[in-house]
Specification:
This protein is an alpha+beta fold. Helix content is about 35%, strand content about 20%. The longest helix is centred in the C-terminal third of the chain and has 24 residues, at about 175-200. It starts with a helix and ends with a helix. The chain is built from 5 helices and 8 strands. Bound molecules: 5-S-methyl-1-O-phosphono-5-thio-D-ribulose and zinc ion (ZN). Zinc ion binds near residues 28, 95, 168 and 169. Catalyzes the dehydration of methylthioribulose-1-phosphate (MTRu-1-P) into 2,3-diketo-5-methylthiopentyl-1-phosphate (DK-MTP-1-P).
Length: about 200
């Protein structure tokens, strides 16, 4: 199997998994994988990520330009490229729109969501105990993705659990698709726990 075919398989499987968990409603979400030659395999804009076919995955360069001019990559391609540029270990990037991420990030105007004392925090890089707090930055949503990327840029190097865009969704990455999916699943579990706790505390 070629590197690109392998990446397509990873992306299709990730789309199905995210859809099965309700994290990519309608045409929401986007998925990518770094290729050995330095290009990025990424979902086309506007497709349902649960029903992706091989032709729903295209290639872009590190600046987000499609290698075939006629292809239209994800509207959020620049956020993927930014992650690959800033983290040379990143091999896969996932973006989803869960109910928990959407609602929790709209409950307050806080610039971060702090997750504390959960066993599952150990899914994130460098965490070895539940006796810890992980801060997940929350950025204001913006339809101007280049401008949004500019706001995210200074936070690289201190985002072990990814980040949230307010009222929109999460971005998570890992060295490969398996790790990225585990982080996404861990983060979404924690966000669901937080949402549940806040509802019960009312
Ligand atoms: C269903 S609206 C969601 C989009 O606006 C966007 O946020 C998104 O996640 C998917 O965009 P896409 O261009 O398909 O990658
Ligand atoms: Zn989105």
């Amino acid at each position: 199997m070629t590197d690109f075919a392998h990446a397509v398989r990873d992306i299709l499987q990730a789309g199905q998994r995210m859809d099965s968990r309700g994290w990519v409603p309608a045409t929401a979400g986007n998925i990518s994988r770094r290729l050995e030659d330095g290009a990025i395999a990424i979902t086309r804009s506007g497709g349902h990520k649960g029903f992706l076919q091989a032709d729903g995955v295209i290639t872009v360069d590190m600046q987000g330009r499609p290698l075939r001019q006629q292809d239209v990559p994800s509207a959020e391609t620049l956020l993927h490229c930014q992650i690959y540029r800033n983290d040379p270990t990143a091999g896969a990037v996932l973006h989803g729109h869960s109910v928990a991420a959407t609602v929790l990030s709209m409950l307050s105007a806080d610039p971060a969501l702090v997750l504390s004392d959960y066993e599952v925090l150990k899914v994130f890089e460098g965490q070895t105990t539940h006796k810890t707090s992980v801060s997940v930055p929350v950025f204001e949503n913006d339809q101007d993705i280049a401008r949004l990327a500019g706001v995210v840029e200074p936070f690289f190097g201190r985002m072990s659990a990814g980040y949230i865009i307010r009222g929109h969704g999460v971005y998570v990455w890992g060295k490969n698709m398996t790790t990225a999916l585990a982080r996404l699943e861990g983060l979404e579990f924690l966000l669901a726990c937080e949402l549940e706790r806040r509802k019960l505390a009312r």
